[in-house]
Amino acid sequence: MKGNKLILIVFLLVLLSKSNFAQNNVGINSTGANPNPSAALDVDANDKGVLIPRVTTAQRVAIITPANGLLVYDTDLKCVFFYEISTFTWISLCDATGTVGPIGPIGPQGPAGANGINGINGTVGPQGPIGPQGVAGTNGTNGIDGAVGPQGPIGLTGPQGPIGPQGVAGINGTNGIDGAVGPQGPIGLTGAQGPIGLTGPQGPIGLQGVAGTNGIDGAVGPQGPIGLTGAQGPIGLTGLQGPIGPQGVAGTNGTNGLDGAV
Fold first, then answer.
1. Closest by alpha carbon to 5, among 84, 86, 106?
2. What is the helix (H) or strand (E) element at residue 90, kind and residue range?
3. Contact yes or no for 70/55 (Cβ under 8 A)
4. Which end of the chain is flanked by fewer CB atoms within 10 Å, N or C?
5. Which residues contact 44 (CB under 8 A, 6 or more apart)?
6. 111, 49 contact by CB (below 8 A)
7. Contacts of 96 (CB under 8 A, 6+ apart)
8. Structure confidence by residue, pLDDT tens digits, 102-111
9. In 178-205, which positions are buried (b, 16+ CB within 10 angstroms) versus exposed (e)?
10. How far apart are CA 68 and CA 88, in angstroms?
11. Quick one: which of 174, 182, 183, 175 has its CA closest to 246?
């Protein structure tokens, strides 16, 4: 199992002050017993553990040509890593999977060991994102405006320059002679008026009733037919308009008289 292999490598890397050598394996204990023949390193303790090198993530990945199975504890990720040379990657034991046996009872906690020597500080990690900006404070009260200084005196208005002389007006031309009006064309003949139709005969007047009592009104006679309207005569032709005479030449303007004194 890969887990057993890693534990064996851990034991091989640990060097403690007490050690017993028997043939080609090492036993570490407080009783002087020989190591187990099947173990290259046999550590026996009930109040101590095995401490492997502790490095930051940057220090771990900076190790040059790590050996296959090299074991370290990453202080940034808080997990044990071993190097797999076949894939050239560091593998985390925190992500290892396998068959999980039943959990045994938790034994009593041993006394706390003495603090080890502090390791070298790791490189500073990248800066985290900037947090949100805090709420803006309230604006302070405005100071009192200073007094307005007195206005300076207004400067004097300079004198107005003299008005230049008015130029001489041009000579007006004389009015030209109007051209002659052309003769008016002849007026067309008025058509003859048609004959007036005949007036129909008036119906007879009814008899007058006996005096004293109103007699019965006689029947109204029929209205005679309306005579025919005569045909309207033809409208005469409109005569031709005579030609417009030529426009006369515009005369020159006369000279303006001199302006009187102001």
1. 84
2. strand 89-92
3. no
4. C
5. 27, 28, 29, 30, 31, 33
6. no
7. 2, 3
8. 334 566 777 7
9. eeeeeeeeeeeeeeeeeeeeeeeeeeee
10. 9
11. 182
DSSP string, 20-79: EEETTEEEE-SS-PPPPTT-SEEE--SS------EE-HHHHHT-SSPPTT-EEEETTTTE
22-44 confidence digits (pLDDT tens): 458 888 888 888 888 888 888 88
Structure tokens belonging to residue 228: 């025919």
Which of 54, 53, 30 lies closest to 42 in space, CA to CA?
A: 30
Q: Is the pTM of this model over 0.70?
A: no
Q: Which amino acid is at 23?
A: Q
Rg (the chain; Cα; Å) = 69
| Contact in structure between 208 and 215 (CB atoms under 8 Å) | yes
Give me the count of residues in the chain: 262
Contact 233, 183 (CB under 8 A): no
**In this structure, which amino acid lies at residue 57?**
T
Owner of token pair 């050996």: 67
Q: Which residue has the tokens 């890593």?
A: 81
Both tokens assigned to 161 = 């320059």
Rounded Cα gap, residues 193 and 196, in angstroms: 9
Residue listed under structure tokens 């006996």: 210
CA 167 from centroid of its chain's CA atoms: 65
